């Protein structure tokens, strides 16, 4: 199925989380059957159009009952089984609390028509939320779409929040991850006692899903068993290649492994010509920039590009474009993107935990090498109407 490329259980790459069973079993999304996997395909197409990202990455979760749902065709059930075995689909007895756990820990947006009223006390950021949830709907032409939604605010609490949190803690349901906690968990390679576990059972494939936590234990979300710590795993961050506002490709930067990005960089770098037009390729240097990740924040260095590099800084009063001197190191902050050409930029993942928890503005300094220049960054806006290069 062609839309499989949008499914991932990689905690560093996913941007949205979807309850597959909820979508597949929703008649309001079209189709004549009570359960139809085509609804998921339509929703993923809608999400790709909404985000202008043809390969938008989605963390897919489903209730276990969907895998044996007789209303699906045998081919559809076989497809779900294969996704599960290939580590593209997380299967649980019930998906709702896991969806919210992932949204809370990884700052993913949730695509669902569910109001999650049972979890408003466990996750107090849900009531009235305006930017973390999207609702699928059916257009008059029969095509599925998605749109932002405002989560309902329930009537006055019947039990105080603190009392309810205590009850949930006793039941082992209430989980609040701070950033240092999920960073620490994601920096380790975990193994499930079940050797055939699709998430944490193979030593040949590093685990990229998010484990569950119960107090001091780290558990497999599929089997509920304590995971064994198999050693460190390098942190990773995702960067998108955006042209004319549309995501054309993406690549992963591993902590401690700087990555060359340009027209045709050597030694396994990111070749932008794979995704962009010839005109823009000619404006990009062979090795235009080096992108690095230290486990908490992304940085970029201009590798003496012919036409220059800028950093776009999102500001309430409007974007500010700052020229990046050759050899200078820029520590990206949330909202920053790297402009290689007026139509081409590199956009880091917008999830906050990719960036350093530092309230300072974006900073620049000399790269630590013998030939690197170390100028002082001049925060000069790009003049209106003037294009780089």
SSE-based structural type: alpha+beta
What is the makeup of the main sheet? 6 strands, mixed
State the low-pLDDT regions, or none.
Answer: 355-389
Q: Strands of the biggest beta sheet: in what spatial order?
A: 3-2-1-4-5-6
Number of helices: 7
In short:
This protein is of the alpha+beta class. The chain contains seven helices and 22 strands.
What characteristics describe this protein?
389 residues; alpha+beta; six-stranded mixed sheet; six-stranded antiparallel sheet; 7 helices; 22 strands; 17% helix
Provide the fold topology:
Elements lengths: L15 E4 H5 L13 H14 L6 E6 L10 H12 L4 E3 L3 H11 L2 E3 L21 E6 L5 E5 L12 H11 L7 H8 L1 E4 L20 E3 L2 E3 L8 E5 L3 E8 L2 E9 L4 E4 L7 E2 L6 H6 L5 E5 L4 E5 L7 E4 L6 E4 L4 E4 L5 E5 L2 E5 L14 E4 L23
């Amino acid at each position: 199925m062609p839309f499989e490329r949008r499914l991932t259980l990689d905690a560093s790459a996913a941007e949205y989380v979807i309850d597959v069973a909820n979508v597949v079993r929703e008649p309001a999304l079209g189709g004549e059957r009570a359960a139809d996997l085509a609804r998921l395909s339509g929703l993923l197409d809608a999400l790709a159009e909404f985000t202008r990202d043809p390969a938008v990455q989605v963390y897919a979760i489903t209730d276990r009952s969907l895998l044996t749902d007789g209303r699906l065709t045998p081919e559809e059930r076989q497809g779900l089984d294969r996704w599960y075995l290939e580590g593209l689909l997380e299967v649980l007895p019930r998906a709702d609390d896991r969806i919210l756990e992932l949204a809370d820990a990884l700052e993913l947006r949730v695509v669902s028509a569910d109001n999650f009223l049972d979890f408003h006390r466990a996750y107090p950021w849900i009531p009235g939320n305006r930017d973390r949830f999207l609702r699928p709907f059916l257009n008059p032409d029969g095509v599925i779409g998605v749109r932002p939604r405002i989560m309902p605010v329930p009537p006055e609490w019947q039990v105080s929040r603190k009392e309810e949190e205590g009850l949930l803690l006793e039941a082992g349901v209430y989980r609040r991850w701070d950033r240092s906690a999920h960073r620490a968990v994601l920096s380790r390679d975990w193994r499930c006692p079940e050797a055939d576990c699709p998430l944490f059972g193979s030593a040949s494939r590093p685990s990229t899903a998010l484990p569950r936590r119960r107090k001091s234990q780290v558990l497999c979300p599929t089997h509920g068993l304590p995971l064994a710590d198999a050693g460190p795993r390098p942190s990773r961050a995702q960067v998108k290649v955006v042209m004319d506002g549309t995501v054309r490709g993406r690549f992963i930067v591993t902590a401690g492994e700087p990555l060359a990005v340009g027209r045709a960089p050597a030694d396994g770098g990111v070749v932008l010509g794979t995704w962009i037009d010839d005109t823009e390729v000619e404006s990009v240097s062979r090795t235009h920039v080096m992108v690095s990740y230290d486990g908490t924040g992304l940085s970029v260095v201009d590798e003496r590009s012919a036409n220059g590099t800028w950093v776009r800084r999102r500001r309430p009063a409007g974007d500010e474009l700052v020229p990046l001197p050759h050899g200078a190191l820029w520590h990206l902050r949330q909202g920053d993107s790297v402009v290689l050409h007026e139509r081409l930029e590199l956009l880091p993942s917008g999830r906050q935990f990719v960036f350093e928890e530092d309230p300072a503005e974006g900073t620049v300094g000399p790269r630590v090498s013998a030939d690197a220049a170390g100028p002082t960054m001049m925060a000069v806006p790009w003049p209106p109407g003037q294009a780089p290069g």
